[in-house]
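Reproducibility note. Readers wishing to regenerate the assembly model reported in the main text can use the exact inputs given here. Chain order matters: entities are listed in the order in which they were concatenated for prediction.
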Amino acid sequence: MGASKKKSYGRFFTVPVVISLSILIFLLLCIIFAPFITKTDPNALDLLNVLKGPSKEHLLGTDKTGRDIFTRILYGGRTSLLSALGVVMISVVIGIPTGLISGYYGGKVDMILMRICDVVVSFPALLLAFIFVAAFGRGLGNAVLALGIVYVPMLAKLTRSLMLVEKNKTYVEAAYSIGYSDRKIIFHEIFPNCLPTILVELTLDLGYAILDLASMSFLGLGVQPPTSDWGYMLEENRAFLTTSPLMAISPGIVIIVFVVCLNVFVDGVEMYSDPSRRRMPSMKKLKKRMELIEHA
Amino acid sequence: MSEALIQVSHLKKYFQVPKHKDLFVRAVDDVSFDIPEGEIVGVVGESGCGKSTLGRCIMHLTDVTSGSVTYKGKDISGIGRKEMKEYRRHMQMVFQNPYSSFNPRHTIGGTLMDVTKEYGMNKKEGQERIVDLVGQIGLDPVVLARRPSELSGGQLQRLAVARALIVNPSFILADEAVSALDVSVQAQILNMIMDLRQEYHLTMMFISHDLTVVEHVSDEVVIMYLGKVMEKGKAVELFDNPLHPYTEALMSAKPREKPDQETNRIILNGDVPNAINVPPYCRFCTRCRDFIPGVCDKVAPQLKQVSGDHWVACHKICPA
Amino acid sequence: MRENIISIKGLKVGVASTSGYVYAVRNINLDVRKGEILGLVGESGCGKSMTAKSILRLHDEKRTEYQGKIIYENGKDILNMKEKELEQIRGSHIAMIFQDPMTTLNPLMKIGKQMMEMFRYHTSLSQEEAKAKCLKLLESVGVTPAEDRFENYPFQLSGGQLQRVSIAMELALDPELLIADEPTTALDVTMQAQILDLLRKLQKESGASILIITHNFGVVAEICDRVAVMYAGQIVETGESMDIFYHPRHPYTIDLIGSIPKAGLNGQKLTTIPGAPPQLNRPITGCPYAARCRYADEMCFTKAPDLQTLENGHTYLCSKADLTGEEAV
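Running the prediction on these inputs yields the following structure tokens for the assembly.
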């Protein structure tokens, strides 16, 4: 019977995806290979050269203690991205199992878990993080932990709603009728079907986490000096917005570019995964391509 | 006559209407019948008559309100999930929609291997069993590497039957197993089921809304309406000599086989009534053409034996 | 011979899908005559719905490519019409009902309001006139009591009732052609019989033509005057219903009719068709059915079959001119 492997048509690499992906990769590479791009130490003070404009040695100038802004942005990316990743990881570890269990069992379990989530959601996210940091002390670790917990309800609710859709599908009933345990049904059968949507959400969360961490650091609750971090750099340099604007704006621009590119890329992934929205080649091209295969 | 493999007696399944403590949907209401060993019992009815719920109760996919289901004389309706697992070895199920009854994220091979693992076969045994079965259902083992979306409905439904057969069950419940398929594919699956039935000495329960299909495969037939059995008996007899007005109406609604075929349509007025708090008298009386005032809307008819194995619940056929 | 309401000439439809360029409809010719009920039968994926939707150009035009002509009664080619002209035809001259009435009706709007909307859009009837007409229509399709149903939301009606409502809505503007895409597939047999009876009755009263798309030969036997059998994007056989049922000529039709379970053949083996239909994303050389046909010889695989025409208008696409399907009956 005609069961040959189907080739899938349609373009994943549309213009927005290519542009956003290449910018993301470029930024990531710069951040990862920071020591090879710039030899300067991000924390090296140079009190003779404070608040300098862009020059050959200092591409984006220096800050009030003479540290190289360009270097600090590169190294700051490490802090920002890693801590954002930490936030997302924490929300995954707690949020996904919560959502899966809540959705699968329903009833009382669902009610209790979801009410707890509601309580967390009902506080403004940042406020909650502030309270957390106020209670356990400043520092990046606490900020990450706080934001991670703040992100849990969103993820849990998404996972739960996906579970509610999936658990009524026949394959779940089939799995049950074979006699699988609940654990196997939840994690082995249902979870893989929720994963694509969850991954999209997580990538978006990563963007939000960068922004939220930046706000926390901006308010002095996250990263502590002298560590460099995009959000913290904004805070450090904002006093000089009028005198040396580039210094204050450049970390902001990097944050915006990174987050926007991330969103555009995720959008592209979603477009591709839905056949009715996928970018198709023109009818003529498609026909020609198929004919070439036929002749080969 | 062969002994009953599965016995359903006075089975009830009520669903509570949300927010109304005293309102119930009586999906299955006091249903009793036997599934004799080696035979195929067809259960027919319109959508909403409770035939699928009945199947789910038998397969322990939902708990029952009261009554019992026995397998080889042992009551399995109230037992725990762990104990039920022992019986699942003997009782398997095939679902209606072949596309949704396989996990879209797993390969077919993966899905089937999981079943063998669950029932204690090692990897080699499992593989041998699966390749053997896939051959028996007339497919090439390459399908094992595919995901459900890459296969046709017919191929998937064959594989669904194969999945049910892995554990060598003695009973298979087919819930609308061929309803979603094209006629030519339906014929392939029906033929295959008949062949496998011989080979595996299968007992089956065949739930369908399609009278023709049920007539084709079944030895015995149960006609359901609004959660109640209206008529049951040997397929040959029941189809030759339908007694209950509902059965007659169902049969007359069958599409013609040829354009010039004479049909004597009995039009059922209106729809199936709401299944919430159904009346304590005959459930079919609102649409029945043989309605007897003062009797049918007063007393609920009991299933009564009219001949040999033929049972009917109707005041007209068996006056109280 | 009666005049044609729609005449499809050499229609080819190509669709861009994720599995590539799909040759969904491959060069079909089909006439829908005035006042007839024509059945377009075939198995899923054979292109029967594609053909029907092409008549109203309901496809996503960016992903679809048409060739050939669909000549409407007034001599104009639907495939070349401007969007404005087409809108005039859709609904008021050619109407379509679908398998699942839930998808055609707006779940958040009362039945009555939806019907009134349609009158407001297409006609210049006053509120009262429109309402009176709606109630009459509902009654004529057996949705009673019409006054109550008028105020109901779609979810309050059963599937059969909803299908009646959608038939009422489509017939409201007295279309000359009603396209019914699997109108009874989602319904129970008892309801199917009622809906088919209703369609036949309404057709007799209005004299409109009906094109029924179905996979079910039972539906064809019930109400169709003429049948076209489709396979792999081609029409392989057309003829009067009686002729197709008693004297099928194309091997596919013969096999297909043979594979329907029949009363009184309890437990006997059904005829089956080996294999599966060809993949639609490839051009076909020779006869599309050759690989599954028990009469096929070498020529069938290489040479496209010729259209054979019999005296009574029965046509079939097969190189074996001498086949008769009496044995299948």
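We highlight two features of this model. The CA atoms of residues 137 and 158 of chain B lie 6 Å apart. The interface with chain C takes residues 46-47, 152-155, 182-188, 190-191, 194, 209-213, 215-217, 235-236, 239, 249-250, 252-261, 265, 267-268, 271-272 of chain B (CB under 8 Å).
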